[in-house]
Amino acid sequence: MTKVELLFEEKQYLGHNRLSIVIRTVLTIFCFMAYYWSENPKPTQVAFLKIGSYPIDNINQSGLIFFVLGTSILILSAALTYVLHIHTKVYKGYIILDGFWTSRKIKIDLRNITAIKKGRYKKNILRRTAYNLHNLGIIRFYTSGEGFVELADNSGFTYKIGSQKSLELYNTLKSEISDLSQN
Q1: 25-69: per-residue pLDDT in tens?
Q2: For residue 90, how many other CB atoms are within 10 A of its CB?
Q3: Cα 119 from Cα 58, distance rounded (Å)
Q4: Which residues contact 118 (CB under 8 A, 6 or more apart)?
Q5: Which of the residues 32, 54, 63, 150 could staple to 41 if both were Cys, CB 3.0 to 4.6 A apart?
């Protein structure tokens, strides 16, 4: 059995997506503020904000659920940094995009690629993760990173692969496609 040479490899994890980080941070701050409010129920004036009295007076430790929820979100955030979302591998002649747990592998034959270009996403921290998302004729793969590589094949598909190492991925794919076109 011959071993196939790996030309490029990148792993992208769910916990590194900025939109998810922002959402989890806002929820955690809300939970801890609600817990603080339940522990200090008297009305207070904080700089620019007047905090009224806590609405539930007769239930002991009613704010504890907020503390537990905020702590759980922090633990979940830490755990998500180890959950693999996209595993990109470039071999001689093809690229494999392996996804999240039960999602199927995508194999793109580089002999069918007609165009390749490198680009940068717009300055926006709120970009959702995507794996094999078909939208407006483009198949998207993204977890985190500022750049992407766009591949167009001869059957009309366009693949937009987001990467943290977009320049390295682009150079590897460009050299591999040029080698295949010469043979």
Answers
A1: 999 999 998 888 777 766 666 677 666 666 666 666 778 888 999
A2: 21
A3: 58
A4: 147, 148, 149, 150, 166, 167, 170
A5: 54
Report helix angle 18-39 to 64-80, nearest 10: 160
Q: What's the Cα-to-Cα distance from 175 to each of 46, 79, 94, 178, 179, rounded to whole Å?
A: 60, 37, 12, 5, 6
pTM: 0.77
- Which residues share a beta bridge with 131? 141
Q: What type of residue sits at position 71?
A: T
Closest C-alpha to 17, from 100, 97, 94, 137? 100
Structure tokens at 141: 């793969």
CA distance 126 to 17: 9
